[in-house]
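dumping this here so i dont lose it
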């Protein structure tokens, strides 16, 4: 017998996460600029959690995007090198295969990407090629 899922316990969509982050940044700017006297008033006005706002202001927590940068497989300069490698391989007549893409990533960063990594990121790199 499986567990019942909570109705609201899911990962927010990217657009909702971006909207939430912008509300947090507006609230922090309001407190620092003097629009709001306290973090609680800013949190209430921008509909964000007081604890999240206070923790972000004191440096206890960071945004989802900045926390994810530490877990990224490739740095921005390595992504640029991989993009150049993809451009070189796209000039040949053979299409770029996911296995070759994983090999290229390993040659650049010396870390093996997971089996699904090319499927997730190949489309993003192809969009940069066009």
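and the seq i came up w/
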């Amino acid at each position: 017998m499986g567990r019942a899922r909570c109705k609201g316990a899911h990962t927010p969509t990217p657009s909702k996460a971006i909207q939430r982050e912008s509300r947090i940044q507006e609230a922090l700017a309001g407190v620092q600029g003097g629009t709001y006297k306290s973090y609680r008033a800013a949190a209430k006005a921008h509909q964000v959690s007081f604890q999240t706002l206070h923790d972000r202001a004191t440096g206890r927590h960071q945004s989802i995007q900045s926390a994810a940068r530490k877990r990224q497989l490739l740095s921005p300069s390595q992504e640029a090198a991989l993009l150049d490698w993809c451009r070189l391989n796209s000039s040949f007549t053979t299409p770029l295969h996911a296995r070759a893409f994983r090999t290229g990533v390993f040659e650049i960063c010396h870390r093996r990407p997971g089996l699904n990594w090319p499927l997730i990121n190949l489309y993003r790199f192809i969009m940069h090629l066009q």
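The CA atoms of residues 13 and 60 lie 24 Å apart.
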